[in-house]
Amino acid sequence: MSTRLKSLLVKELIQFSRDPIIVVMILYFYTLCVIICTYALTFDIKELPFTVVDYDHTPASRSLIEHFSASDAFKLVGSASDEDTAVRWLETGEVRMALIIPSRFDASMRRGESQALQMIIDGGNSNTADFARGYAAQIVAMFQTEVAGPNNSSAAAIKPVVRFWYNPNQSFTAFMVLSMIAANTLMVAMIHPAASFVREKERGTIEQLIVTPVTSLELFVAKTIPTFVMGLLAVFPSLLIVWMFGVPMRGSLSLFLVLTGVFLLSAIAMGVFVAVLSNTLQQALLLAFFALFPLMFLSGSMSPIESMPKFLQQLSLASPLRHYMDVILGIFLKGAGPADLWLQTVLLLGIGSSLYMTALVVFQRRAS
Amino acid sequence: MNSTRVAAIVSKESKEILRDPILVSVCILLPVVMLFLFGYGVSLDVDDVALGVLDFDQSPDSRALVDAFAHSGYFRVAHVFQSRSEIEAALRRGEIRTAIVIPKGIQSDLVREETADVQLLVDGTHSATALIVGNYARSIVIRHAQSFAGSIQLRTRVWYNPALRSINYFVPGLYAVILMSFPPLMTTLGIVREKESGAVQQIFASPVRSSEYILGKLIPYGSIAFLQILLVMATGYIWFRVPMQGNLWFLLTASIVYVFCTVGIGLLISTLTKSQLVAMLAAYMVALMPSYLLSGFLFPIFAMPYVLRLFTHAFPTRYFIETSRDVTLKGAGFEELWTNVLVLLLYTIGVFVLAAISFKKKVA
Q1: Over the stretch B89-147, which tens digit does the pLDDT of each residue have?
Q2: pLDDT band for position B193 (50/70/90)?
Q3: If both were cysteines, with which of A271, A345, A361, B223 could A193 make a disulfide (CB 3.0 to 4.6 Å apart)?
Q4: Sign, Cα dihedral of B208, B209, B214, B218
C-alpha cells in the first residue's frame, strides 16, 4: 500500500472516530431496528376483529362461528343483533369483517341445498381483505367437510394439502429479519461514504486534497474502506440477532460474508456516485434518499417482484438490493451455493464497478 | 415577534431553496415517483405465478384440476415434471414458485366419494407471496372439488374498495407517508446546515429573535410540504382515480395540522443534533421508518404484538393515515374522526413546546 493511501486512511479513521454518535446509530439500524421490525411486521392477518349476525341461532350456526373464532386469523369482538349494527361497527372500524348467517341455515344444510353465507369485508386494506377472504373460504370448506362427514355427497372430495418449503411454519420472521438487515446495510453503506465525501466539499477541504499528489482513485479507495470495514463488522451483531430469532443457516457462512462484501462495494459505489454529483450535504442526502427509495422498492423486500408490471421487473435488475436479497435468502433459507448465486455475484460486481468508473470520470472532469 | 424580520428570513430561505436545482427537483419528483412506484409496483396481488405440475394420475379429472389452475388467472403452467426430484431442483433455482402434485387414483377416489389428497408445494422464502399463493391454490382446489357437489357458498362482499385495488389503499396512506418523509428531513437539514457552517451564529448576533428565526424556517418548508400533498392528492385522484368519498376540505384541514406536526418534528431534531449526517439518521429513525412500518401503511397494526401496538401510538402518522383513508374510501367526516385530529393537534403542540424548550437552552 502506498504511503499516500495509508495517510489518507489514517485521516479517515480519525474523522470517523470523532463522531461516536454515528457508530451508535449504525448499530441501532443493524440490531434494535431489525428486532422491532421483525416483531411488528407481518403481512399475514392475525386476530382480525370481526362480528357476526346470527339469524339462525342453531347449534350448526354456533359451530360455524366457533370455527371462525377458533382460527388464528379472526377474533370475534362481539355479536351484532342485526345487520345495521354490524354495518355501524364496520364504519367506525371496530370490526373489519362481518359474517351474516341467514335464518334456516341449519335446516337447508340438512336438506343438502346450496345456500349463501354472507360476508362483508372492509376492503380499505386490500391485502388484508384478500387474506381474510381466502381464510374465510377455507374455514367454511373445513366446516362443511366436518359437518357433512366424508360419506355425504356434499363433502369436498379433494382435500388440498399445502406445504411451504424452506419456511415450513410460514413465519414471517426469517424473511423479515433478513430483508431488514439487507435494507439497512444498503442505507448505511450508501449514506455514510456520501456524507463523508460531501463534507469535504462543503468545507472546501476537497480542494486541498486535489492539490496534493493524492490521485482521485486513492481518494475513492480511502472513502470506501472505512465504510466497507464497518459494514462487514456490523454484520456480526446482526448475525447474532438472526440466530436469536432461530433463522436457520443452511448455506456457508464464508460465502455469505464474501457476497456481503461484494454487495457493500456496490452500495458504497452508489454513495460515492451521489457524492460526486452534489455540492452540499443537503443535496447529497436528498439524492441518496431519492435513490434509496426505488432501490428498496424494487428489491422484492416490500412486495414480491413477480406482482410488478414487466417494465418494473426489468428495472429491478438494476437494484443491487434485489440481487442481495436473492443471496441472503438463498444462503440462509435454501442453502444455496456458489453455483446458484454466480449470476447475482456477477451483476453486483457489474453494477458496482460501472458506478465507480462513472463517478471517477465525473469527478475528474469536475476537478479539472 | 416582528413580521418584517420573519419575512426577511422567509425570503432568504426561499431564495436558497429555489437556487438549489437538486433540492427543487427532488421535492417535486420524489413524491410523484413514490406514487407511481406504489401505484404500479407494490401489490401483493399475485398473478402469473410459475406453476410446476406433477400429475401421477393422467386422467380427465386430474387434467380438469390443472386446467382450473391455468384458467384461474393466477397461475401459469411453467413446467410439467415426471418425478419429485425435478420439482425440488426447479424450486431451488426459482424457476417455479409452486408445484402441484396429483396422486394416482384421484379419479377413482372421486367416484368413490373418498377424500383425495392433492399436494401443493409452495416456495416459502418470500412469505407474503407464499401465503397468498398458498391461499389461492387452496381455494382453487376447494372450489374445483365443490363443483362436484351442492354446498355452502360463501358470498363475499368487499366494502369501501370493492375491486380490492391496492392503489386505493396505498395512495391515501402515501399522503401521510410522503409528508413524514420530507418535511422533517428538509427542515432539520435546513437548520443544522446553518449550525454546521456557523451561519446560525451570525443570525443570532442580528436582532432576529429565535422564535422569528424558527417561524421563518417553518413557513417555506411547511409550504413546500403542503404543495407536495396537493400534488400527490391531485395525481392520485386524476391519474390513479382514487375515490374521494368524503369532504376534501376536512381532509385538507387535517393535513395542515399534520404538516405542522411533521415540520415540528424536524425542528425538534434540529435542536438536538449538531451534524447533518446525525440529523438525517435521526430523522430517518424517528420519522421515516415508523411512518412506513409502524403506521399501518403497509403492515396492519392489529396483527402486531400488544406492546408494539401501544408503541405505534407514539407516532402521529397512524392517526393521519386513518383519517385520510377513512375520508377518501369510507366518506367519514369530522363526526367519526375528531379524536384523530385532536390527537394530531396535541402531538403538534407537544412537539413545538419541546422544541422551544430545547432551543432556548441551546441558545442561552
Answers
A1: 777 766 787 888 888 776 655 555 556 677 888 776 665 667 777 777 877 877 776 65
A2: confident
A3: A271
A4: negative
Residue A255 has pLDDT above 90, yes or no: yes
Count of alpha carbons within 13 Å of A347, Cβ hemisphere only? Answer: 16
Q: Nearest CA to CA, how far is B158 from chain A (Å)? A: 5
Tell me whether strands B98-102 and B116-123 are parallel, antiparallel or unpaired.
Answer: antiparallel
CB within 8 Å: A158 and B26: no
Enumerate the H helices of chain A as residue ranges: 3-17, 20-30, 32-40, 59-70, 83-92, 105-110, 126-148, 173-203, 205-211, 216-244, 253-277, 281-297, 310-315, 320-329, 338-367
Give the chain A residue whose CA is nearest to the CA of B275: A19
Q: What is the value of pTM for the model shown? A: 0.76
Cβ pair A233, A273 in contact under 8 A: no
pLDDT digits 0-9 by tens, B196-249: 778 878 877 888 777 788 888 888 888 888 888 888 888 888 888 888 888 889
Residue contact B29–A290, C-beta within 8 A: yes
Distance of alpha carbon B286 from the chain centroid? 16
Residues of A with Cβ-Cβ distance to B40 under 8 angstroms: 308-309, 312
A138 to chain B: nearest residue by CA?
B139
ipTM of the complex: 0.71
Sorted by sequence, the CB contacts under 8 Å of residue A188 that are 6+ apart come out as A26, A29, A30, A227, A230, A231, A234
Cell of A152: 355425504
